[in-house]
Write a structure and sequence with these properties.
By secondary structure, the chain is mainly α. It contains ten helices and no strands. It starts with 18 loop residues before the first helix and ends with a helix. Residues 1-29, 167-208 are annotated as: Disordered. Residues 1-10, 191-206 have a biased composition (Basic and acidic residues).
Length: 256
């Protein structure tokens, strides 16, 4: 943006001024030009055209103040809204201390830009009462062991973040142990199922073998009975009784 933006109106008749007055005037103009330059280079490109016609730092600042802060009534309304937001702000369960404090700090800066005085003690108290329940142990410890009136925001945030990291590590270890325990349980269940399957297969194998053994035993028994019957017939044929009835056709038919 450069020095071309510096627009300072010179007195129309500077010849009547004394050398001392001219020196003071030149010094004042130089400071005003420098201030205007800083304002012009600090604003974004899309905002610069709004203050490009300003010839002094005061004029440029007034343009910005009216546009972004509005009238006194608008500023009061905006300030009331910011105060309400500050009082109602609470940390979410999904937020970290860093994320929540960043939001709170931005809100505090907005309040200060509208002229609200926010002492550090008030920010400390707000943090202590607005963090989630999982920070209750460290909050209680801080309230019991430290002087809240002299505790800085930096110290408080550091303590909360340290507690947050320790708690996170413990949760990670607990999850890891739970996962390992679950894997062990699955392995044990798998072994039980495998043993049960083997036992079932062995039972089925035994059941399949039993009918074969019964059939084999029945066959052997039948052969023994048949052998004994034939043996008895041979004995009968050799006896006197057989010889007496050998002529009977019916007996012959029966024994044929």
């Amino acid at each position: 943006m450069g020095d071309s933006r510096r627009r300072v109106t010179l007195p129309e008749d500077s010849s009547t001024s004394s050398s001392a007055e001219k020196g003071k005037l030149e010094n004042k103009k130089a400071k005003d030009s420098e201030a205007l330059y800083y304002i012009q280079t600090a604003v974004a490109d899309h905002i610069f055209p709004r203050i490009s016609v300003a010839t002094s730092a005061k004029e440029a600042w007034s343009i910005l103040q009216k546009e972004y802060q509005g009238s006194a009534k608008v500023r009061i309304i905006k300030l009331q809204t910011l105060r309400r937001d500050f009082e109602n702000m609470k940390m979410k369960d999904s937020e970290t201390i860093d994320e929540y404090y960043t939001k709170l700090r931005e809100l505090v800066n907005q309040l200060k830009s509208y002229g609200e005085d926010i002492p550090e003690k008030r920010v400390v108290e707000k943090l202590l009462i607005s963090v989630t329940e999982k920070y209750d142990p460290i909050v209680t410890t801080i309230e019991e062991t430290k002087d809240i009136t002299t505790l800085t925001v930096t110290e408080l945030v550091g303590s909360l973040e340290a507690y947050e990291k320790r708690r996170s590590r413990r949760e990670e270890n607990s999850l890891e142990n739970a996962f390992q325990s679950k894997l062990n349980m699955r392995s044990q269940n798998s072994n039980r199922k495998e043993e049960k399957f083997k036992s079932t297969m062995e039972d089925k194998k035994k059941q399949n073998m039993r009918p074969c053994r019964i059939v084999k035993e029945q066959t052997i028994l039948r052969r023994i009975v048949t052998f004994e019957e034939n043996h008895n017939v041979e004995i009968a044929r050799g006896s006197d009784t057989w010889k007496k009835i050998v002529g009977s056709k019916e007996i012959i038919k029966l024994t044929a």
